[in-house]
Design goal:
Layout (H helix, E strand, L loop, with lengths): L7 E5 L4 E6 L6 E5 L4 E5 L4 E6 L5 E6 L11 E7 L1
Parallel strand pairs: 1-7
Antiparallel strand pairs: 2-5, 3-4, 6-7
Protein backbone atom coordinates (compact mmCIF):
# COMPACT_ATOMS: atom_id res chain seq x y z
CA UNK A 1 0.00 0.00 0.00
CA UNK A 2 2.77 2.47 0.88
CA UNK A 3 5.33 2.18 -1.90
CA UNK A 4 6.11 3.21 -5.44
CA UNK A 5 7.12 0.42 -7.79
CA UNK A 6 9.62 0.99 -9.21
CA UNK A 7 10.89 3.33 -6.50
CA UNK A 8 13.50 4.97 -8.78
CA UNK A 9 12.89 6.77 -12.06
CA UNK A 10 15.89 7.65 -14.24
CA UNK A 11 15.75 10.56 -16.68
CA UNK A 12 17.92 13.03 -18.61
CA UNK A 13 17.90 16.82 -18.41
CA UNK A 14 15.80 18.33 -21.18
CA UNK A 15 14.15 15.06 -22.23
CA UNK A 16 10.45 14.64 -21.48
CA UNK A 17 9.43 12.01 -18.96
CA UNK A 18 6.14 10.12 -19.22
CA UNK A 19 5.12 7.79 -16.40
CA UNK A 20 1.88 5.81 -16.26
CA UNK A 21 0.85 5.50 -12.62
CA UNK A 22 -1.86 3.17 -11.30
CA UNK A 23 -3.11 3.24 -7.73
CA UNK A 24 -3.62 -0.44 -6.89
CA UNK A 25 -4.00 0.26 -3.18
CA UNK A 26 -7.10 0.68 -1.05
CA UNK A 27 -6.38 4.35 -0.23
CA UNK A 28 -6.05 7.59 -2.20
CA UNK A 29 -2.45 8.59 -3.01
CA UNK A 30 -0.44 11.25 -4.79
CA UNK A 31 2.50 11.07 -7.17
CA UNK A 32 4.47 14.20 -6.28
CA UNK A 33 7.84 15.49 -7.46
CA UNK A 34 7.82 19.03 -6.10
CA UNK A 35 11.07 20.04 -7.83
CA UNK A 36 9.42 19.57 -11.24
CA UNK A 37 5.92 20.83 -10.39
CA UNK A 38 4.35 17.37 -10.41
CA UNK A 39 1.44 16.72 -8.02
CA UNK A 40 -1.07 14.16 -9.29
CA UNK A 41 -3.81 12.79 -7.05
CA UNK A 42 -4.93 9.23 -7.64
CA UNK A 43 -8.20 7.77 -6.44
CA UNK A 44 -8.42 4.07 -5.65
CA UNK A 45 -8.02 2.12 -8.91
CA UNK A 46 -7.24 5.23 -10.97
CA UNK A 47 -4.55 5.36 -13.67
CA UNK A 48 -3.00 8.66 -14.75
CA UNK A 49 -0.27 9.61 -17.18
CA UNK A 50 2.24 11.98 -15.60
CA UNK A 51 4.46 14.07 -17.86
CA UNK A 52 7.23 16.48 -16.91
CA UNK A 53 10.50 17.92 -18.22
CA UNK A 54 13.56 17.65 -15.95
CA UNK A 55 15.37 20.98 -15.99
CA UNK A 56 18.35 20.09 -13.82
CA UNK A 57 20.42 17.05 -12.94
CA UNK A 58 20.48 15.46 -9.50
CA UNK A 59 18.40 13.20 -7.29
CA UNK A 60 14.91 14.42 -6.44
CA UNK A 61 12.28 13.14 -4.05
CA UNK A 62 9.20 11.31 -5.30
CA UNK A 63 6.62 11.19 -2.52
CA UNK A 64 2.98 10.65 -1.66
CA UNK A 65 1.76 13.80 0.10
CA UNK A 66 -1.35 12.20 1.59
CA UNK A 67 -0.95 12.73 5.36
CA UNK A 68 1.04 9.92 6.96
CA UNK A 69 1.95 8.14 3.72
CA UNK A 70 5.49 9.53 3.39
CA UNK A 71 6.12 8.57 6.99
CA UNK A 72 4.84 5.06 6.20
CA UNK A 73 7.52 4.73 3.52
CA UNK A 74 5.81 5.94 0.35
CA UNK A 75 8.87 7.65 -1.09
CA UNK A 76 11.08 7.21 -4.12
CA UNK A 77 13.58 9.10 -6.23
CA UNK A 78 13.89 10.67 -9.63
CA UNK A 79 17.53 10.56 -10.74
CA UNK A 80 18.28 13.01 -13.55
CA UNK A 81 21.56 12.87 -15.45
CA UNK A 82 23.05 15.64 -17.61
Amino acid sequence: EFKFEPATITAKVGQPVRVIVTNIGALEHTFTVTDFGVDEKLAVGQTVTVEFMPTQSGTFELVCTTPGHKEAGMVGTVTVTP
